[in-house]
Amino acid sequence: MRYLSGLAVTLALTGCMQHETSQDLDRFIVQTYASAKVTATQLPPEPSYLAMSFEPTVDSDPFVLPIAEQEDTLAKGDCWQPNDLPNNRDSLEGYELASLDFKGVIGLPGSYWALVEAPDNTLHRVGLGRMIGNHRGRVDSISQHTLSLTEHLPDGLGCWQVRNVRLALNNNK
To answer: Could you report the per-residue pLDDT of 97-111, keeping only the tens digit for each?
Structure first.
């Protein structure tokens, strides 16, 4: 029975197919290929490439910061230069003036010593004429509540400017 049903389905499918249908399909394919036009555009010519070998001009390590070159001074002849400042650097000259704290005074009126705390929490006794801060601030006067300094600031053009600064007594810390 199974055999007969498989044979019946095969005969039915074969009988539905006509010989003319395959000829129509073949004709359609031939006409389509004949009417097809080439629409591709031609590629531009390939650019010429000239290979060059790399030759480094400076033997430098890319992971090392370059050394700053010393520029010629642009000092004008008519501007002030700090020639009278001492060359030896004080331990308090390595700190920003804003990071130093004026903690108090010791001594008698007229001969005060200022107590200045550095960022590393060391307390320094500072007298008149001592240099503090990285702009070479010279201590001009010491009172019970203020410490007066004269700072010497470079202007970037080879000249120097003088600035008067006062540190107030800091009781909050």
So the answer is: 889 999 999 988 778
The answer to whether residues 147 and 127 touch, using CB atoms and an 8 Å cutoff, is no
- Tell me the whole-structure pTM to 2 decimals: 0.51
Give the Cα separation of 165 and 12 in Å (integer).
113
The DSSP 8-state label assigned to residue 122 in this structure reads -
Spans of the chain below 50 pLDDT: none
* Tokens standing for residue 148: 């007066």
- Which pLDDT value is given to residue 49? 87
Report the candidate in 133, 156, 164 with the shortest Cα–Cα distance to residue 79: 156
Domains in the chain and their CATH numbers?
A: 91-168 (2.30.30.830)
- In terms of Cα–Cα distance, which of 117, 94, 87, 92 is closest to 104? 117
Contacts within 8 Å (CB) and 24+ apart, 82-89: 82/136, 82/152, 82/160, 85/131, 85/136, 85/138, 85/152, 86/131, 89/131
Residue 37, token pair as written in the block = 């036009």
For the record, the structure tokens of 169 come out as: 């007594």
pLDDT for residue 128: 92
Distance of alpha carbon 147 from alpha carbon 139, whole angstroms: 7
